[in-house]
Amino acid sequence: MDGIISPSVRKGKNSKALIYTEISLETIRFLDSISNHLDFLIRYDPRIQLKDWKNKNNYGEDKRTGLAKIEDNNFIVYFEKNSNEELEKAKKTLKWANEGIPGLADLLGKYPYPADVNNRKLPIYLADTERKYEELAMLINGSPFKMIPSVGLYFSVYSRMGNLTLGILLSPVIWRSDNYAQEVLLHEMNHYVYFTLVEYDKAVRPFLWVSEGLADYFSKTEKTLTPEQIQLCLQYTLSGTFPNFSANYWGGESVFRFMEDEYGKGHVRSFVIYTYSNTIDNATTASFGKRLNQIEEEWKLWLSNR
Q1: In which residue ranges of the chain is CATH 3.40.30.160 found?
Q2: Fold adopted by 7-197
Q3: pTM of the prediction?
Q4: Which of 63, 118, 124, 59 is nearest to 97 (CA)?
């Protein structure tokens, strides 16, 4: 692997991942500012304990919920009972999730197996209706929140003990094709890996173009931007979240495509790993030997020439 690997990535498969550490108010405020704008909800909760990582605490483990499940060593997929159609979707989801692990480990430096997160398997919930999607979102999150239009959601809480992923929730609309369903699943799994590996005691700044652009870069084939989208990107800065929230997906993805084209995949990987424990400016300096404003200029020139 190219680049210096952060301590969180050096952890072996069987090492303890939960580190007791202090979280700065600055980090908490920043992460609050990016949560629940697009497809993930991540919040600080100092009350969580080691026992909260147990799989038996998942929504869906209670027989009264009416959810069935299939699982293997890495994942638990929850779905509606008494439906062969939903069972087949669950089987596909389990298969695709396991197939995505090598690519995630390669791009993000490591995949957090259950042994890395207190033996917690990644819960994945399949909603069979849009109403159920909204209902499950509130139940998994543990409290009401403002729903936004989405096809997938990632939920987690973090504290001085690390990041606890509550689950991934997938909307029924993703099943318009197997390819699209797989893309959405891998996008949300990218959030799982990224936010599990972030070192919350550091001054981290994963602006939405970083977290969403990275997830689209991993899960989709390259998107050709329209002239209008390029013009929008030329007005943005990489030193903050893009004001047009949807642009953080396709615009952010274009930043990672630029990095790959100009510097190679090894440098993309290095940049991602540095963002776990650094500001974005420090990550570009360490990965490319250039300040963030220089990378921004090169990205915009790359866009203009496409």
Answers
A1: 7-197
A2: Glutaredoxin (3.40.30)
A3: 0.92
A4: 124
